[in-house]
From TrEMBL:
It comes from Serratia marcescens. Coiled coil: none annotated. Involved in targeting and insertion of nascent membrane proteins into the cytoplasmic membrane. Acts as a receptor for the complex formed by the signal recognition particle (SRP) and the ribosome-nascent chain (RNC). Interaction with SRP-RNC leads to the transfer of the RNC complex to the Sec translocase for insertion into the membrane, the hydrolysis of GTP by both Ffh and FtsY, and the dissociation of the SRP-FtsY complex into the individual components. Belongs to the GTP-binding SRP family. FtsY subfamily. This is Signal recognition particle receptor FtsY. Residues 26-48 have a biased composition (Low complexity). Transmembrane segments: none annotated. The keyword Membrane applies. Part of the signal recognition particle protein translocation system, which is composed of SRP and FtsY. SRP is a ribonucleoprotein composed of Ffh and a 4.5S RNA molecule. One of its GO terms (cellular component) is plasma membrane. It is a peripheral membrane protein. GO terms for biological process: SRP-dependent cotranslational protein targeting to membrane. The keyword Membrane applies. Keywords: Cell membrane, Cytoplasm, GTP-binding, Hydrolase, Membrane, Nucleotide-binding, Receptor.
Amino acid sequence: MAKDKKRGFFSWLGFGQKEKEEEQQQPEQPVEQAEPQAAETPVEPAAAKLDDKLPAQESEPAASVDTPGEWDNGQAGEQIAENLPAAGEHPAAQALAEEIVSVTEQVVAQQQPVVEPEPVVEPEPVVEPEPVVEPEPVVEPEPVVEPEPIVEPEPAVEPEPIVEPEPVVEPEPVVEPEPVVEPEPVIEPEPVVEPEPEPEEEALLEPVAPAAAQEQERPTKEGFFARLKRSLLKTKQNLGSGFMGLFRGKKIDDDLFDELEEQLLIADVGVDTTRKIITSLTQHASRKQLKDAEALYGKLKEEMSEILAKVDQPLDVSGKTPYVILMVGVNGVGKTTTIGKLARQFQAEGKSVMLAAGDTFRAAAVEQLQVWGDRNRIPVVAQHTGADSASVIFDAVQAAKARGIDVLIADTAGRLQNKSHLMEELKKIVRVMKKLDDQAPHEVMLTLDASTGQNAVSQAKLFNEAVGLTGITLTKLDGTAKGGVIFAIADQFGIPIRYIGVGEGIEDLRPFKADDFIEALFARED
């Protein structure tokens, strides 16, 4: 209220507009408000005195206080002019007004200088540069102290484990080279003195015979039988013991016979031979001679054993001097290798042997046979590659007769059974041999590769028609599951099977024995 009265009074005197103008020019600030209030406080008591003296005068100005801003400058002048005579009429009021005006001017004077520094106070925000203190984050380089992890080289102290070279003292075990004294056992080569028997070259052949005789005896024992079983392992998957899974726990019926027939055909037993076996088993079953599948298994073993029993005829080379064996067969079945193994076995039996290199077509065939001869100290009759095979064998027969050789084994070039001109060449060789010996060759042996399967049957047929086979050697039985072809050949031709090859070693070429073969084939694995 005091302010309202003051303002009304100032408006009465005409000073209110000046204050308003100043207030418009200089907006109030919190600091400005505090100082005017302090300055206005002494004015208020003076105003109070004026209120006491002039109660009647305030009423009129009070009404004008409500709309001071609505007056214009002309009106303000008129009111001041009207009020001045009133002031003359009341000297006390005029004196008081002058006093108030002087006080007001002082207050205004105080406000103006105070207001002026206020903008200067604005520089105080210039104190904001204090954020420049933010460079203190530049102190962040302190993380550069992180190089302290470089102190990690302290693990470099780990080189102290390099002190471990102290175990290098272990070279003391190097004293172990004393076991190098073991080379003294190298003195064992003194047994190499065994070559001393070499002066007994004549006697050398005799010790070889007993040694080979021992090798001959070993196969007759279980050792060879076990090796035979192992060699026939693949063939047994389809034949022999391979039937156990087929017969176990089943009844004898048409389905069983169908499965058995399929199994025999897979093993390359051959169609004709398979039908013969199945027919025989069916007849026995219809007569109720077979009670169960186990009995059928036993009967199957008997049937197959009978087929091989017909061709179980070992080769006998006695009674003829020389006993001439002519080896025939297609390419790559192992004729030359079989010749070398046979020569070693005959030599082990104490017989003198000679070889004829009749294969003058294949490269290195002559050299291969000569290597076998050198190993066993067996003479080899040979000519250059491309020479006439018949002439080479003719010379060999003459030489064998002149030297009294017990066994002459003649090699021939491999030829396919369907090449008629090559088969004619083979016939020529036989005719030339008969000029020197009517009964020669005493043995025409066909070498067959068991892995060829039914093609071996075709080979046996055509070679038999060309030169009349008297024996068969079946090789590579250890590497095939088609060993059943032996039953087809034996059943169709009845040609004696002299030898079977079940491995690469010299002792793996053995005389064929039907019983051993069947037992090994049907042997049950525990």
